[in-house]
Task: structure prediction
Amino acid sequence: MNTDVLIVGAGPTGLTLANEMLVAGVPTELVDKLPQRSDLSRAGGMQSRTLEALDQRGLLEPLLASGNFPTTAGHFAHVHFPVDNTRHRLPWRGVPQADVEAFFEDHLAAHGLHVRRNHDLVALEQNDDSVTATFADGSTIRSRYLVAADGAHSTVRSLLRADFPGRPGTTTDIAADVRVSGADKKMSHRWSEDGHWGALYPLGTDPQGRPLYRLATGGPKRSLPRDVPVTEDEIREALNTVFGSQVQLLELRYGRRITNAARQAAQYRHGRVFLAGDAAHVHLPLGAQGMNTGIQDALNLGWKLGAAVQGWAPPHLLDTYHTERHPAGAAVLRNVQAQSLIMDRAGSRDSDVLAVQDLFTDLVRLPAVQRYLADLLSGMAIRYPMGGAEDHDLVGRPAPDLDLGAARVHGLLRTGRGVLVDPGDRFGKVAGPWAARVDHVTGGGEPMLLRPDSYVVWAGATDELEPALRRWFGEPERAASAVTKNV
Result:
């Protein structure tokens, strides 16, 4: 056995999972077919749930300190709304994918985990005990588990012959990273009279400190085949069509055509192989939901793989990755398809759709609708099934960052262990047998039990604590030490 976990693909999903393996103290290899990391961004921002998760691992402040990442608003079909700036809903930040990857790769390298590049996967075999990956240069890696984080055109998914149902793309739009002059905050979204649209979003600055923007644009004349290169002249025409002469292109750093294809793997688990991120679900990139959903896939799977490697995972635990994340991915596809429909039909200037869009714009002015959309798009609305313990409103949801006196909840999660918050010190004897996997914390808040990914699995009900401990943290007598280091 070369390693316990092999991760194929060093994008945001794979890098996040590698960090979770580092937190769990699990030997891991991370490979990628590219010879070097790309400095171009497919996604342009990080949402509140993802930011919370980084905070829970102690990575949020270092990430935000590594660049100039502005606070951003949310949008649904390019109808914009503010996002709550509270302690429990961190404001969305314009952190481009390239910066996410650079930060994680540097962080992992500082702890001895390096990306092995030029590893082009060509074959895959698995048995009851292991998975063997073969690469184009003839080398092999044998691991207990393998995770496919190798993108929309996943080689792993293809080698598995995994079902990937859905629909092909019917139109293409353009996503480009640009430097422009004349942009202002009022250019988040505009339509032209001929049905073309454009939106400019701040992406922070380039290495020289100059402002960067993500341009999204589309319309009848720009729905071209994906393999047609995006040119500077095409971007200049798009900017002029939508924004007039005020906005001028200074530099096209990156441009690609994106489709409204919508597909999702029928199963996220295939024996000892798991699909995550774009390898599991693809859709029109809107609001960086692809990157954020992939990162959240990795956070869900990571601690479960750690438990399996360490020998204390309950028999059903790895299967909960599919049962929890497949519905989450399906929900993203639904909201993206709804947005795509409104955007495409509005581009045709269809009067019926324009009426719907006007009504929807009015609805988005309501604070309750803004909160609903922010939670829907960021993943904060997800509520995982917790085996019949959902009577309490907190159960199945991410734990709020409560002040417990000596510490905050997010700080307690940095070890990658479970946490039992026990204000009255009533449950120490119950939790004691699980001390190798669960930290017992007294003081503040109300009683609740948290998984290592911060989701609440029990709250308030005394007689249900031990069943929750067994369901999520296994049988005490099977414990290998799960004490982990804080990275």
